[in-house]
TrEMBL record:
GO molecular function per UniProt: 4 iron, 4 sulfur cluster binding; metal ion binding
Record's keyword annotation contains Iron-sulfur: yes
InterPro entries documented for this protein: 4Fe4S_Fe-S-bd (IPR017896), 4Fe4S_Fe_S_CS (IPR017900), FTHF_cligase-like_sf (IPR024185), Helical_ferredxn (IPR009051), LUD_dom (IPR003741), LutB/LldF (IPR004452), LutB_C (IPR024569), NagB/RpiA_transferase-like (IPR037171)
Domain called LUD: residue spans: 73-288
Keywords: 4Fe-4S, Electron transport, Iron, Iron-sulfur, Metal-binding, Repeat, Transport
Lineage, top ranks: Bacteria, Bacillati, Actinomycetota, Actinomycetes, Streptosporangiales
UniProt organism field: Planobispora siamensis
GO biological process, one term: lactate metabolic process
Protein name: Iron-sulfur cluster-binding protein
Domain Lactate utilization protein B C-terminal: 403-474
Positions of the 4Fe-4S ferredoxin-type domain: 312-392
Length: 479
C-alpha cells in the first residue's frame, strides 16, 4: 500500500459510494458507538483529564520546537546502547534502507508489528518487489492482509469487517500464508482468535527478522516504546535476531518521565482502557540481537514549517477523533484514500503529500485531487478537537488547508468579484439594487461547477428591497 491509494477519486466520489453500503454503515456505527462509550466512561473517571491533556500538548509542542536537538540526542543514546540509526528523507529512501538491511540477513520472510509509518511508505509492497514477504501479526492487520484489503481505521484496521466476513477470509486465505484455518471454524470471537493465534505462532517461531514502528521514542535514554493489546508485538520485538524499527521523527519525547502523561492519555483515548495491556520498551540492541532504527521524515519537516498545520504532528494516533466524527462514521476509512483516515487523515495526509504540487506520493499524477479534497471532508462540528487528547485544533487546520487548497478558476473569479463589490459600500448598494430587479430570473440550480453546491443547498431568495434602501425609505420605522 502506498501513501495514498493510487487511482482513488476525490473524497466526495468515495464518500458517495461508501454511504450506499448499508452493511459498512452498520458495522461502523456499531463499532464506533461502542468505543465512544468506553472512552467517555474512562476519561470521565479522571478529574485532572484537562490538565493531562494540556501537559500532553505542551510536551509535544516543546519537543517539536526543539526537534533537531532531541533527534541528535536520541541518535547518540541509541548508538551508545548498541543500535544503529539510519536517516530517511522520504519513503523511497526508507524502503531502500529496510530492504538492504533485510537482504543482508539472507532472510526472505519478516514479521511485522502493526505500524502506520511502514504503511505510509508502502514498505510491504517495496519488500515484495525485492522478493521479501512481510507477514502482519496484529489480528486486524492480518485480516486486512489476508483479505487483500486496505485498513480503514487507525486502531482497528478491519473495523469495516464483521465476524462472518472474517471467518470467510480466514477459511479462504489462511492456507496461502501459512497454517490453514480449521475446517469447522465458526464466527465466534474465541474461535477466530484461536485460529489467528495458531497461524501466527508458527510465524513468530520461524522468523529471524522483525519490523516494527513505535508509539514513542525517548531522547534522553534512546528507548523505543510500543503499545499493543495482543502480545504479538512483544513476540516480534523479542524473538527475532534482527529488529528494524521505522519511526516518524515526530514520535519523540524528551524524557522518560514524559511517558507518565502519554501512558494515561493514549489507552483511555484509544481503546477506552485505563491501562494498556502490553507496553514494550527497549533500548538499543538486546543480547544476541541486532537493532536498527530508521528515522523517517517523508514530509514531516514541511509540516513543521507551517505554523498552523504543525499541530498535526502532536498526534499520538489514538483514533478518538475518528470515533466521534459524524463524517467518518458514515463513510468509513477507505473514502479518505490514505492510511490516515478520519479527521486526522484529513489534515495530515494533504500536508505530508502537499496539495499543490506533484510529489513523490502522487506518483506522477501531478496535483493530487484526493489530497486537495480532504480538507473538505468535514462538517467542522468540532467533535474531533474536543476528543483529541493532545488538543489538536483539527477544525482550525482544516480551514487553514482549505485556504491553501487549489481552487477552480471560476471560484477564484467569483471571490475576486465579491471582494471588489464588498470593498465599497456604494458598489454593494448598487449590486443589491440590481440583484433585486433580477430576482425573478435567478435559477434554482447553478450551472457548471456551481451545480455541485446547489445540488445540496437552496439559493436564498433575493429580497426585492435591500435593508439599506428600506432604512433610507423608512428611517427604521416599521409603521
Ligand atoms: S488527532 Fe488527536 S484524537 Fe485524532 S488520532 Fe491524533 S491524537 Fe488521537
Amino acid at each position: 500500500m502506498s501513501g495514498t491509494f493510487l487511482g482513488m477519486p476525490a473524497f466526495p466520489g468515495n464518500a458517495a459510494a461508501a454511504v450506499r453500503d448499508s452493511q459498512l454503515r452498520f458495522n461502523l456505527h456499531k463499532a464506533t458507538r461502542t468505543i465512544r462509550g468506553k472512552r467517555a466512561a474512562v476519561v470521565g473517571e479522571l478529574p485532572d483529564w484537562g490538565e493531562l491533556r494540556a501537559a500532553g500538548k505542551e510536551i509535544k509542542d516543546h519537543t517539536l520546537r526543539n526537534l533537531d536537538r532531541y533527534l541528535l540526542q536520541l541518535e547518540e543514546a541509541v548508538t551508545r546502547a548498541g543500535g544503529r540509526v539510519h536517516w530517511a528523507a522520504d519513503a523511497a529512501e526508507a524502503n531502500r534502507i529496510v530492504a538492504e538491511l533485510v537482504e543482508a540477513t539472507g532472510e526472505t520472510k519478516v514479521v511485522k508489528v502493526k505500524s502506520m509509518a511502514t504503511q505510509e511508505i508502502g514498505l510491504n509492497e517495496a519488500l515484495a518487489e525485492r522478493g521479501v514477504t512481510a507477514y502482519e501479526t496484529d489480528l486486524a492487520e492480518l485480516i486486512v492482509q489476508l483479505g487483500d484489503d486496505w485498513p480503514s481505521h487507525i486502531l482497528v484496521p478491519a473495523i469495516h469487517r464483521n465476524r462472518s466476513e472474517i471467518r470467510e477470509i480466514f477459511r479462504e486465505k489462511m492456507a496461502e500464508w501459512g497454517r490453514a484455518a480449521p475446517e469447522d471454524l465458526t464466527d465466534e470471537p474465541r474461535a477466530l482468535a484461536e485460529a489467528a493465534r495458531l497461524h501466527l505462532r508458527e510465524r513468530f517461531l520461524s522468523s529471524k527478522v522483525a519490523i516494527s514502528g513505535a508509539n514513542f521514542m525517548i531522547a534522553e535514554t534512546g528507548t523505543l516504546v510500543v503499545l499493543e493489546s495482543e502480545g504479538n508485538g512483544r513476540m516480534c520485538l523479542t524473538l527475532p535476531e534482527t529488529l528494524i524499527s521505522v519511526v516518524g521523527i515526530e514520535k519523540l519525547l524528551p524524557r522518560w518521565q514524559d511517558l507518565e502523561v502519554f501512558l494515561q492519555l493514549l489507552p483511555r483515548s484509544s481503546t477506552g482502557e485505563r491501562m494498556n495491556p502490553y507496553t514494550s520498551t527497549w533500548t538499543g540492541a538486546a543480547e544476541g540481537q541486532e537493532f536498527h532504527l530508521v528515522l523517517l521524515d517523508n514530509g514531516r519537516t514541511d509540516v513543521l514549517a507551517d505554523e498552523v498545520g504543525r499541530q498535526a504532528l502532536r498526534c499520538i494516533r489514538c483514533s478518538a477523533c475518528l470515533n466521534v466524527c459524524p463524517v467518518y462514521e458514515r463513510v468509513g476509512g477507505h473514502a479518505y484514500g490514505s492510511v490516515y483516515p478520519g479527521p486526522i487523515g484529513a489534515i495530515l495526509t494533504p500536508q505530508l503529500h502537499g496539495m499543490t504540487r506533484a510529489t513523490p506520493a502522487s506518483h506522477g499524477r501531478g496535483i493530487s485531487e484526493l489530497d486537495a479534497s480532504l480538507p473538505y471532508a468535514s462538517s467542522l462540528c468540532g467533535a474531533c478537537f474536543e476528543a483529541c487528547p493532545v488538543a489538536i485544533d483539527i477544525p482550525e487546520v482544516l480551514v487553514h488547508l482549505r485556504a491553501k487548497a487549489p481552487h477552480p478558476r471560476s471560484e477564484r473569479l467569483a471571490m475576486r468579484a465579491a471582494g471588489w463589490i464588498f470593498d465599497r459600500p456604494v458598489r454593494l448598494a448598487r449590486t443589491q439594487r440590481f440583484g433585486g430587479r433580477l430576482r425573478r430570473f435567478v435559477p434554482g440550480r447553478l450551472p457548471g461547477p456551481g451545480a455541485a453546491w446547489t445540488d445540496t443547498r437552496d439559493i436564498p431568495d433575493i429580497p426585492a428591497e435591500s435593508f439599506r434602501d428600506w432604512w433610507d425609505r423608512t428611517e427604521g420605522s416599521t409603521r
